[in-house]
């Protein structure tokens, strides 16, 4: 299989988030204000739709925010284990599982800060005999955590679009039970799944390079090993590794044109006890992220305008780029959310189909 000439890497860690950077962002907390604003601890990940919140461009008169910025894996692990944040981004797959098990600590908010086409991020060894998705059957495939939202999307899409049943694959799980969302929630891959736990002295990147794995999904290397992540190898730069889809952009375009879906990864939550004390904060948190999304979109258009003014993009391209793709709220994302709920049921994580309207209600 030949790889593409240019591979677009996921933006989630295009700027690697080190512990020092997270500490610096946390230190820049707002000072308490008078006037009855609620003091709230907010946990977020660094991405274009949270940067306006982190940078205090988007604020709320109802909230005094102490903001902590973490990698997604560490944020979700901490929140599911100890719930230290009054409001936060949250794994939507993990939240569906938690609510289905009766965990009522969190009220979901229809805020969706990150989106990808996760199935096209799959990497394979060139010598593994994987030329198309169906060749993944019987292969050794690594994943940070089995239940994570991006992995749920990848498996569901591979089954829907290419007929690959997740149970036909031997899965290797990297994150350890004592430092993972699945460990904090007591989640294991559903019955009938073949899986192995990667020992602490190994990691996905090294196993791919060493030929112990044939493929890997949801691979985001880190610069500094942290509580939950330990893979550092830049696999896509290695000549032995390529993408599952030779033309990633073409597959993304085909899938989006067919389904209209771009995979949602995170939602947001407010703790139920916080809501019960101050019900108005549910809307305040939602409004804050809506403002941040508006700011992010405006900044995106301002950046594009430089290229338009310089004649580097034509009017047709400019018009296409002006179309907004990222909206919060249930209705603009209903088909995507209902597809994810279907995947959660089909893959054995929830025992009945999640009703999206009830999921995002306060009850």
Describe this structure in words.
With 363 residues, the protein is of the alpha/beta class. The chain has two domains: 193 residues, 3-Layer(aba) Sandwich (D-Maltodextrin-Binding Protein, domain 2), CATH 3.40.190; 143 residues, 3-Layer(aba) Sandwich (D-Maltodextrin-Binding Protein, domain 2). A six-stranded mixed β-sheet has the order 9-8-7-10-6-11. α5 crosses α12. The longest helix is centred in the last third of the chain and has 30 residues.
CATH fold naming of the largest domain: D-Maltodextrin-Binding Protein, domain 2
Instruction: Note the main sheet.
Output: 6 strands, mixed
Count of all domains = 2
Strand order of the largest sheet: 9-8-7-10-6-11
Helix content: 25-40%
Can you give keywords for this protein?
D-Maltodextrin-Binding Protein, domain 2; single chain; disordered N terminus; six-stranded mixed sheet; 363 residues; alpha/beta; 13 strands; 15% strand; five-stranded mixed sheet; 13 helices; 2 domains
Task: Give the topology.
Elements (H helix, E strand, L loop, with lengths): L18 H9 L10 E7 L6 H4 L8 E7 L2 H11 L4 E5 H9 L5 E4 L5 E2 L6 E3 L14 E4 L5 H14 L7 E4 L7 H5 L8 E4 L6 H6 L5 E2 L24 E3 L4 H12 L3 E2 L1 E6 H6 L2 H30 L5 H7 L12 H13 L9 H4 L4
Parallel strand pairs: 1-2, 1-3, 7-8, 7-10, 8-9
Antiparallel strand pairs: 3-13, 4-13, 5-12, 6-10, 6-11
Helix pairs in contact: 5-12
In short:
The protein is of the alpha/beta class and 363 residues long. It has helices at residues 19-27, 51-54, 72-82, 92-100, 149-162, 181-185, 204-209, 248-259, 272-277, 280-309, 315-321, 334-346, 356-359; strands spanning 38-44, 63-69, 87-91, 106-109, 115-116, 123-125, 140-143, 170-173, 194-197, 215-216, 241-243, 263-264, 266-271. The longest helix is centred in the C-terminal third of the chain and has 30 residues, at 280-309.
């Amino acid at each position: 299989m030949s790889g593409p000439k240019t591979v677009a890497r996921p933006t989630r860690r295009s700027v690697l988030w080190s512990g020092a950077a997270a500490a610096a962002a946390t230190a820049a907390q707002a000072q308490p204000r008078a006037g009855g604003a609620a003091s709230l601890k907010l946990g977020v990940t660094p991405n274009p739709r949270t940067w306006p919140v982190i940078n205090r461009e988007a604020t709320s008169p109802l909230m005094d925010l102490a903001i902590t910025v973490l990698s997604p894996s560490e944020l979700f692990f901490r929140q599911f284990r100890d719930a230290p944040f009054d409001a936060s981004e949250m794994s939507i797959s993990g939240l569906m599982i938690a609510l289905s098990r009766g965990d009522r600590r969190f009220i979901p908010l229809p805020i969706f800060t990150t989106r990808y086409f996760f199935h096209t991020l799959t990497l394979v060894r060139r010598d593994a005999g994987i030329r198309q998705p169906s060749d993944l059957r019987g292969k050794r495939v690594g994943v940070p955590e089995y239940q994570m939202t991006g992995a749920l999307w990848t498996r569901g899409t591979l089954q829907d679009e290419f007929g690959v049943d997740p149970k036909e694959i031997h899965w290797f799980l990297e994150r350890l039970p004592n430092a993972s969302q699945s460990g904090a929630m007591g989640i294991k891959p559903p019955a009938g799944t073949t899986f192995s736990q990667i020992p602490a002295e190994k990691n996905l990147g090294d196993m791919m390079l060493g030929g112990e794995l044939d493929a890997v999904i949801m691979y985001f290397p880190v610069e500094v090993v942290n509580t939950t992540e330990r893979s550092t190898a830049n696999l896509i730069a290695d000549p032995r590794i390529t993408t599952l889809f030779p033309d990633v952009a073409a597959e993304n375009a085909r899938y989006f044109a067919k389904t209209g879906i771009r995979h949602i990864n995170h939602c947001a939550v407010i703790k139920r006890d916080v809501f019960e004390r101050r019900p108005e904060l549910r809307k305040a948190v939602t409004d804050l992220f809506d403002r941040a999304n508006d700011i992010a979109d405006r900044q995106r258009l301002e950046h594009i305008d430089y290229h338009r003014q310089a004649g580097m993009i034509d009017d047709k391209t400019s018009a296409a780029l002006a179309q907004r793709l990222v909206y919060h709220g249930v209705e603009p994302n209903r088909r995507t959310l209902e597809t994810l709920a279907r995947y959660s049921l089909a893959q054995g994580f929830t025992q009945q189909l999640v009703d999206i309207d009830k999921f995002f209600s306060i009850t």
